[in-house]
Specification:
The complex is a heterotetramer, with 2 copies of chain A (about 325 residues) and 2 copies of chain B (about 350 residues). With about 325 residues, chain A is of the alpha/beta class. Helices cover about 35% and strands about 20% of the residues of chain A. Chain A contains 12 helices and 14 strands. In chain A, strands 3-2-4-5-7-6-12 form a 7-stranded mixed β-sheet, with helices on both faces. The termini of chain A are far apart. Chain B has 2 domains: about 300 residues, 3-Layer(aba) Sandwich (Rossmann fold); about 30 residues, no CATH class. Chain B is an alpha/beta fold and about 350 residues long. Chain B has 12 helices and 7 strands. The chains are: A alpha/beta (about 325), B alpha/beta (about 350). Chains in contact: A-B, A-C, A-D, B-C, B-D, C-D. Chains A and D meet through helix 11 and helix 12 of A and helix 12 of D. The complex binds thiamine diphosphate (2 copies) and magnesium ion (2 copies). One thiamine diphosphate (TPP) sits at the interface of chains D and A.
């Protein structure tokens, strides 16, 4: 099995999905000739032509809005938004249209659209090349939200998202793009949506993370283990609809929860997870659930490593929560 | 472009040569739409339906466009075009059920009245946000082109929508990718209270197409034959691979913006009166009478038939129950996820709201 | 003192602010000649002219984007978005620009902008005339979010929002527009931002609400009182930055929390409030905090009274929480 | 419009008649910008700064526009226009401090490099999202007009930005309200990898102004005098109450989109070579030499002086510490709210990240 990094795995997933189904196409700014600013779509235009790997004008509402039209006709467009920070000009189309089309036509029409977008910090991108806006989409009924942490999951989840009949926002941790390599099958395969994965079993505290922060959660858990704290780390993989069972059973076992995410804390997905767990496992909770997140400021540049909820901030949260 | 002259005769140089039966059917459809409009307005005033947004005065622009499209072409509506859907054979009962939001409402009470759709009739779905349907129409046409299908798309929108973000995106993409999309702009003089000449500094809306290097036509939107001809011409070009066309249909919203609006606040009686004289129904009827295929009796009978049909639909609609509460929780996703199943049972098990009626 | 409903009070607030300061102006779709589709700006164009009460083209990004430009010059525009459901075409300007301008210029520039918009259900408006998108703006660092429940507060908070040097999203509960009347001073006055108000003192359970749902929370509390449950009801008034102290002290007293909002539950502001309280008053909590909210679906029409978290759904939540 | 001919002479019919000192100062500013660009590119390659987005080949379009504006006029930048800011006297040290994101960076390390601003120089702030600055420029000009001030606004943007939502909104509002806004469109041939002729189907970008009934000019953006003249003409009209103008500055991005880009993937050497021959610096220098006010020695000295000045700034910048961590928590609001005060103390009290350096 070949080794792939995240960029290669997503590329392989797109290639596989396009080979499998003529209705799949890729569109976005610079995805064709250039192969994407992160080179995720490299080589696709050569294989599938400029009609299926489409360089678009600079318009996110056009990229998403026309893709919705194609999806209504039965195609399966995969739109790329160059950075998650630039999804807002297309926000109306996602929230008002893609999310509500099935509901407002009682299922007569559907929008099998995937919007791929690199998100998050770690490349010194400052305010406009670092954001993690997943909460906005999780709040929007009708959208599915996926965020893989590793190449294998990324490929499988992307293929599954493309096969899915609902609109999916697919967040790619750009900090991980070239940082992690693992064995990934050449052929297509699905990783089911809405299934979280326990990546480290533990007894004393549950730590939930996704995307790039999964690695920080994991290394914090390893570090905490040296201090005698046994952490269970859960990689959500799909953020919504949520695999709430896996989280709640884990917390019922550990009695403790730490959630990690890059987005600002307030009204982030962490608050929702804390609320869900508190509602469902109240009597099992032995410590207040903790959030380790980005601060409630725009994303900075120079100090991005103090902004991000990296291991150095997760470790004390795990220990304090476990010892509460 | 005008074809039907003041006196009801046709400009022989422009006459598209529709059979007289076809022209009569256009008139009948336009009249039927108007009768339904009028009835719905009354029902709203009586508090029997919540809302209506009509097409009074714009029937030629709407029905003429719909008639020029072929069965395999798609219609992407704004919100005043139920006449186009009915023209395609959508059952009136279904529309009336929708207006009452009852159990047979195809959208099961999830939307305001006048938010129709029908896959069977190749008619996308009405949504309220202005302009959002325009990129869909481009994508739909683009998909048809990619799939090698002989399908074009006609998309309706108003003068106000030309200021929206999505208008700009849609026009640009349609022109760049040469999609078979017809941009059917009902310039009815107003966006709620804002007159078109304050919506934009451009003298005509058709001028806007130049920014995208898209061909444009301007036509008298109250002249159903002129509308038909312009749309057919654009359709022909689109089918021949000539890409999109922008068509400005110059018309006038004789009624309020919707049943919630009072247009007297922002426009004069005289202005409305002068447009009433350009009523597209009167114009077409004059023509039919000149050709001796229509008269007062036929007209009275037809209107009476439309009313009777409508009344019967209302009677049935009002007898039907409200949609099942369960319908609130389906179709958010294709398969109902766990959290919605839970919410559904919680809702069904919980206490009911005191009143379902509103004031 | 004259009696005013919410529409009149907001109108009076706008009028007062405009008389006080020439830099204040009002702009939006149909706000001038028509006086707004809800008549909130009625009569303002007559008094202040078409240059200060501006009918704009149909473009929310224009309404918000040009207002930001005016605010950068030192004016104090009040932009109206006709329905909160239609704010999305202007979302990019709010999130990427208004919210971040001060931060990204280290305070050299500021955006004293108010965006007024009617929100919420109750007028049979279905999916696109009923939404409550406050969580999206609360999640966005740099924005303030206000939501009055009554005429007096509405006028005072609006005046304060206009005087404030930061961008404020001002949500008006359209269900309350003409439903409530009270005495409101003719003259201008401020109600400070970020101060919640206890509208009903109680000992056994804390109920937090805002806007139109405040009335439901209040009547549920009255109803629960008949069954022996003593509820403290808090009207948030400003949603962000939050008066967290008032809430936390109340919960420290009652040990119990019920949050009510119209927006869908998932990633709504309720989750944030539950998380904040759980983090800060964990050892005082005697029952799991509860959320009574809109369901996680688009807003329906026929059954809107079953969608909204009206008193009939709040009462059992109060009682069950109190008796937990 | 061209003014400086191939051979360096001026078209006497169009010569705006700038004093020779002024023309020399334009050349010096353009050269200085280029030297700085080149140095920053090197610093980025050496890993000493994180990023740079330059203006190689577009100096005439940028400096010429800035020079035509008056001190009281505002400049609303895209992101390649630091030359315009320096033209207005912005201290180079401050810019270099910003590029290093050190404690003296006016934005205290909160943004990527090249995100400048200066209220003192009536220069708004660079942000990354494309097109968002355009409505600001309209609002700023509108405010000046409302306040009766003699101020106009020049806003820079690229060919790609003409497809953005905000372009459409800004052009429409500017034309409807006749704001004194100059739309300075640097058509540099590409939006990252997308050539302008695939950005839009329109033949020129200037054509787009017709959609809004806004006057438009097209000028050789590599001819600094032509740029100056066009902008001055538009400025005059704006000051006289004639409203906005769209100016297409036809130029070419000789370098990559930014230091992150490799343009060889999407364009040919030949294409770049042909544009290199139209280098605006070479053109202007030829003219200056023809007028005997410039020569090789002066040129070498000036470039050396620019380099030395820059080098000294870099030396100082690299000596300065990083911004205080506290700066991360201020300026979110005017007054720091409780939750940020809490977060600040938590951050300051907590453990530090292992590394501040990136790879
Ligand atoms: C994005 C958005 N903004 C505002 C509204 C409120 N609104 C509904 S219809 C309308 C005017 C539309 O005018 P036009 O496009 O000319 O269509 P017409 O109603 O005249 O047919 C407005 C402002 C909306 N529905 N969507
Ligand atoms: C809304 C948005 N979408 C995408 C991007 C990514 N991006 C940065 S620059 C750029 C191209 C801009 O091209 P143009 O407007 O021609 O300006 P130029 O760089 O050529 O000066 C793109 C797509 C962005 N910054 N903002
Ligand atoms: Mg109209
Ligand atoms: Mg460009």
């Amino acid at each position: 099995m070949p080794e792939m990094n995240l960029v290669q795995a997503i590329n392989s997933g797109l290639r596989g999905a396009m080979r499998e189904n003529d209705d799949v196409l890729v569109m976005g700014e610079d995805v064709g000739r250039l192969g994407g600013v992160f080179r995720v779509t490299q080589g696709l235009q050569e294989e599938f032509g400029a009609d299926r790997v489409i360089d678009t004008p600079l318009s996110e509402s056009g990229i998403i809005g026309t893709a919705i039209g194609m999806a209504l006709h039965g195609m399966r467009p995969v739109s790329e938004i160059q950075f998650a920070d630039f999804i807002y000009p297309g926000f109306d189309q996602l929230v008002s249209e893609a999310a509500k089309y099935r509901y407002r036509t009682a299922g007569e029409y559907q929008v099998p659209l995937v919007v791929r977008t690199p998100y998050g910090g770690g490349i010194r991108g400052g305010q406009y090349h670092s954001q993690s806006p997943e909460a906005l989409f999780i709040h929007t009924a009708g959208l599915k939200v996926v965020c893989p942490s590793n190449p294998y999951d990324a490929k499988g989840l992307l293929i599954e998202a493309i096969r899915d009949d609902d609109p999916v926002i697919f967040f790619e941790p750009k900090r991980v793009y070239r940082a992690v390599k693992m064995e990934v099958p050449e052929e297509t395969y699905g990783v089911p949506l809405s299934e979280a994965k326990i990546v480290r079993a533990g007894e004393q505290v549950t730590c939930v993370a996704w995307g790039a922060m999964l690695y920080e959660a994991f290394s914090a858990a390893e570090e905490a283990a040296k201090q005698g704290i046994d952490t269970e780390v859960i990689d959500l993989r799909t953020l919504w609809p949520l695999d709430v069972e896996t989280i709640v059973s884990s917390v019922k076992k550990t009695g403790r929860l730490v959630v990690v995410h890059e987005a600002p804390q307030t009204c982030g997905f962490g608050g929702e997870l804390v609320a869900l767990v508190t509602e469902r496992a109240f009597l099992h909770l032995e410590a207040p659930p903790r959030r380790v997140t980005g601060w409630d400021t725009p994303f900075p540049q120079t100090h991005e490593h103090e902004y991000l909820p990296l291991a150095h901030r997760i470790i004390p949260a795990l220990i304090e929560t476990a010892r509460y | 472009m005008h074809i039907i002259r003041e006196d009801g005769s046709l400009d022989p140089g422009l006459d598209p040569g529709l059979s007289i039966d076809r022209v009569v059917s256009l008139y009948k459809a336009m009249t039927r739409t108007r009768v339904i409009d009028d009835r719905l307005q009354r029902l709203q005033r009586q508090g029997r339906i919540a809302f209506h947004v009509g097409s009074l005065g714009e029937e030629a622009a709407i029905i003429g466009s719909a008639a020029a499209l072929r069965d395999q072409d798609w219609i992407v509506p704004c919100y005043r075009e139920v006449g186009a859907l009915l023209w395609r054979g959508y059952p009136l009962q279904r529309y009336v059920d929708h207006m009452f939001g009852n159990a047979d409402d195809p959208i099961v009470g999830r939307q305001m009245p006048d938010h129709t759709f029908s896959r069977e009739h190749r008619y996308l779905s009405v949504s309220a946000p202005i302009g959002t349907q325009l990129p869909h129409a481009v994508g739909l046409a683009w998909a048809a082109k990619k799939r090698g299908l002989d399908e074009c798309v006609g998309v309706f929108f108003g003068d106000g929508a030309t200021s929206s973000n999505d208008f700009h995106a849609a026009m640009n993409f349609a022109a760049v990718y040469q999609t078979p999309t017809l941009f059917l702009c009902r310039n009815n003089g107003y966006a709620i209270s804002l007159p078109t000449d304050r919506q934009t500094a451009s003298r005509t809306l058709a001028e806007k197409a130049a920014a995208y290097r898209m061909p444009a036509l301007r036509v008298d939107g109250n002249d159903v034959l002129a509308v038909w001809r312009a749309v057919r011409e654009a359709l022909q070009r689109a089918c021949d691979g000539g890409g999109p066309t922008f068509i400005e249909l110059i018309t006038y919203r004789l009624g309020g913006h919707s049943t919630s609006d009072d247009p007297r606040i922002y426009r004069s009686k005289e202005e409305v009166e002068s447009w009433r004289r350009a009523d597209p129904l009167v114009r077409l009827r004059k023509h039919l009478e000149q050709r001796d295929v229509w008269d007062d009796d036929l007209d009275t009978d037809w209107r009476a038939a439309c009313k009777a049909e409508f009344k019967e639909c209302v009677r049935r609609a009002e007898e039907k129950p409200a949609p099942d509460l369960r319908e609130m929780f389906t179709d958010v996703y294709k398969d109902q996820p766990l959290h919605l199943a839970e919410q559904e049972s919680r809702c069904l098990a919980g206490p009911r709201a005191a009143e379902e009626d509103h004031d």
